[in-house]
Structure formats: structure tokens, C-alpha cells
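Action item from last meeting closed. Structure (417 res):
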């Protein structure tokens, strides 16, 4: 059986950054296993700018961002298995895969990094009633059709959901000469980045209908129109508020699901809120020697954050493969408190040094503080929005104040100062 020090499942931004970090931290043999025909993941179809502002300190398109990491992978001599589907991973880190050249293959790894990314929720996941005509696409599928295949799937669109991919596609369709009738969002606030609301909707005069949803789809062979309705505070359609919009295409931007089928089969503990693995500050999962990073762990807004998180996982995997990192007992749990939906990492095994925590707020707030409960530690922020990840760095001196405690609880409260 072939042996590698660190195996990375997935060749997108998380997988490449983890591989580079593992190699740069002393792992001799690092291999990326990717089911697509090339590295880059979702970045291949993201031809718009806005990537790399934090990581590279310059604005890049998705393919440009991917190219930077592809060059690093090649320069460092990191091995790749492309067009290869991983079928199974077991607790001893044996990987079962299949590809056209080798057929069925097996691989043993000193450490594994899960970097499979996420997939889009479909119409079936949200149960929209009506007929089943052609013309219903997820936003990411439409993005691939336009940007990589040169095909435009519709001319008159309604977009359900205000996630970032949906917002970007509203602009993309408009630039291609299509008419975007409206972006319909069930929540009372938009779910995308503020910059995308401004640059993709407001700048192009595209209506955003909050507290609305699609309640019916019309058309037999092709979408002919949709019915939208206002929703109440429990997200139930309000009778009498129905409105018909003529269109030939419905795009769905209704959330992303981390691709954790492999993780679940291996026995990795999953967080019911993030739908990703429960990890410690080293991004190690509940299974020793298996690490996770990127959208398979939690859905990110910025690829820059994905790369930084993946570097932690890659570095930790390298240390584990060399025998320099071993799992300890859980010292402390990170708990989401008031106005906090989730916190990553969820557990701490050392509880010292500097640990950056990622979290999401449950509702939009202005002028807030992220407070560590039962301590005098807090962090000021100008705003908090559900569509934008919040990050706080808890430093060594902060952990000293929490010595002996089994939980670190984060609350997000309005700032009275």
C-alpha cells in the first residue's frame, strides 16, 4: 500500500493552502486528491474580482487566486491525483479511491486533511411547490454554465436567496444582457456581504425583496413565472400577499451544505449547526490525525479566511505526521452564547497561546462587543451581520484569566460606550 505523510482530500483553495503549509512545515510526501480534472475548486468559475485583498494584499479574480497556489504546489513538488474520487476513509487513515487510470486504489497517510468544500442546497431541500419545468438552477450551476461553458441559461430571471453567489450572478446575468426581475429573500435582512449588496444590486438597480419567498412555480416545459409571497415572523407565507412575476429562469441561492459524507462514514463528530466537523484549535477532528479546513468545516464568506484556516490544518497535520503533535484531553469547550449562532473551533486542548475564533451572529446589530462571559475580556466591533463572519483573537493573557474554567462562552451584545 502506498504511503504519504499528509493526504489532502480536495484540491480547492483549502486543500492547496493546507498542502503548501504541510510541505513548508516539514512533511516529506504530501499528496492532494481531487475529483475534478484540475486544481482550483470553485475558484475556477469565479471570474469576478474581490479575492486576495486580505491574503495577498491585492485584488484578484478567482482563477488568478487559484493560480498563485497552483504555482506553489508545483514549486514545492506536492503530488496530485486528479480525476480521482475518494470513496472511503477509515479511522486508521487508510484512503480508498478510484480513478480512470488506476481503477480502485488504496493509500495510507500519516495525517489527513479534509478539504472537500461544500455544495448548494437545491429546490428539493426547500420544498417549493409547483410543476417541474426546465429553467430552475442553483446559482453556482448557472455560474459554471456562463463563465466556463459560455452558455446563458435564461433571459428573464428571479433569484431566490441573497447569498453571495446569487448576488454575484444577478450582476453577471445583467452584464450579459439578461433581465433580473428581483432577488427574493425570506429573511428580514440580506445574507450576503455588504459590498456585494452594493456592487451587485444597488449599482444595477436590481430590486431586493426582503421577508418574501417563492411559493409556486409555473410552467410545463419551461419556467413561465413564479409566485412570490410575503412571510410573517415565523417565515410562513401571508395569504393575500401573492404576486406573480413572469420569468423563464429561477436561480436558487439558498445556502450551502458542507460535503461531509466522507467525514461521517469515517466516524468524525459533526456540529449540528455548522454541519461540519467538531475541531480543536489545531483543526483536528474527533478522530486523531484527521484535520479539517475550509467550507467543509464551516461556510466562509472570504477565500482569504479559507486559506488562513487551511494553513493551520496543514501545519498541524505535518506536525502530527512527524510525531510532534498528539491529541490531548479536551481542556475547554467554546460555547455560543447570547446572539451567537456558532463558534469554531468548538473545543480547546491546550487553552494557551493565541487562538482565533470564528463565529456568526444571529441577527444584524450595530456597535457591538464580543464578550467572553464571566471575564473582563471583550472586543469592540462597529457592526455584526449574519452574512459576515466575525473573528476574535483570544491571546495568552486572556486564557490566563480563564484558568480552571471548562467553558469559554462568547456573547455578542450592544456596546453602551
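Sequence:
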Amino acid at each position: 500500500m502506498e504511503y504519504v505523510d499528509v493526504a489532502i482530500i480536495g484540491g480547492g483553495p483549502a486543500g492547496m493552502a493546507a498542502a503548501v503549509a504541510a510541505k513548508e512545515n516539514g512533511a516529506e510526501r504530501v499528496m492532494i486528491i481531487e475529483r475534478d480534472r484540475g486544481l482550483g475548486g470553485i475558484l475556477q468559475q469565479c471570474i469576478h474580482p474581490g479575492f486576495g485583498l486580505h491574503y495577498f494584499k491585492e485584488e484578484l479574480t478567482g482563477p488568478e487566486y487559484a493560480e498563485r497556489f497552483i504555482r506553489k504546489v508545483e514549486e514545492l513538488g506536492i503530488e496530485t491525483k486528479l480525476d480521482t474520487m475518494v470513496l472511503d476513509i477509515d479511522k486508521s487513515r487508510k484512503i480508498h479511491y478510484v480513478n480512470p487510470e488506476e481503477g480502485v486504489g488504496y493509500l495510507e497517510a500519516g495525517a489527513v486533511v479534509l478539504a472537500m468544500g461544500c455544495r448548494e442546497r437545491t429546490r428539493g431541500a426547500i420544498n417549493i411547490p409547483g410543476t417541474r419545468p426546465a429553467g430552475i438552477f442553483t446559482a453556482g450551476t448557472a455560474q459554471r454554465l456562463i463563465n466556463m461553458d459560455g452558455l446563458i441559461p435564461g433571459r428573464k430571471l428571479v433569484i431566490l436567496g441573497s447569498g453571495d453567489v446569487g448576488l454575484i450572478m444577478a450582476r453577471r446575468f445583467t452584464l450579459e444582457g439578461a433581465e433580473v426581475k428581483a432577488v427574493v429573500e425570506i429573511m428580514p435582512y440580506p445574507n450576503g456581504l455588504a459590498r456585494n449588496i452594493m456592487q451587485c444590486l444597488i449599482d444595477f438597480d436590481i430590486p431586493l425583496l426582503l421577508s418574501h419567498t417563492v411559493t409556486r412555480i409555473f410552467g410545463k416545459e419551461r419556467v413561465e413565472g413564479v409566485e412570490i409571497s410575503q412571510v410573517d415572523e415565523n417565515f410562513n407565507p401571508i395569504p393575500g400577499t401573492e404576486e406573480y412575476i413572469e420569468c423563464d429562469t429561477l436561480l436558487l441561492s439558498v445556502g450551502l451544505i458542507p460535503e461531509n459524507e466522507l467525514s461521517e462514514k469515517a466516524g468524525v463528530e459533526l456540529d449540528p449547526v455548522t454541519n461540519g466537523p467538531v475541531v480543536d484549535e489545531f483543526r483536528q477532528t474527533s478522530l486523531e490525525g484527521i484535520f479539517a479546513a475550509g467550507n467543509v468545516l464551516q461556510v466562509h464568506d472570504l477565500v482569504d479566511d479559507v486559506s488562513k484556516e487551511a494553513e493551520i490544518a496543514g501545519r498541524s497535520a505535518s506536525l502530527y505526521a512527524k510525531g510532534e503533535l498528539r491529541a490531548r484531553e479536551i481542556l475547554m469547550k467554546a460555547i455560543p452564547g447570547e446572539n451567537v449562532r456558532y463558534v469554531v473551533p468548538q473545543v480547546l486542548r491546550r487553552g494557551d497561546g493565541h487562538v482565533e475564533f470564528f463565529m456568526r451572529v444571529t441577527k444584524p446589530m450595530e456597535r457591538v462587543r464580543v464578550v467572553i462571559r464571566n471575564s473582563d475580556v471583550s472586543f469592540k466591533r462597529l457592526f455584526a451581520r449574519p452574512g459576515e463572519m466575525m473573528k476574535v483573537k483570544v491571546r495568552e493573557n486572556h486564557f490566563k484569566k480563564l484558568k480552571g474554567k471548562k467553558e469559554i462562552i462568547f456573547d455578542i451584545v450592544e456596546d453602551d460606550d
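Note appended to the action item: The chain has a mean pLDDT of 95.
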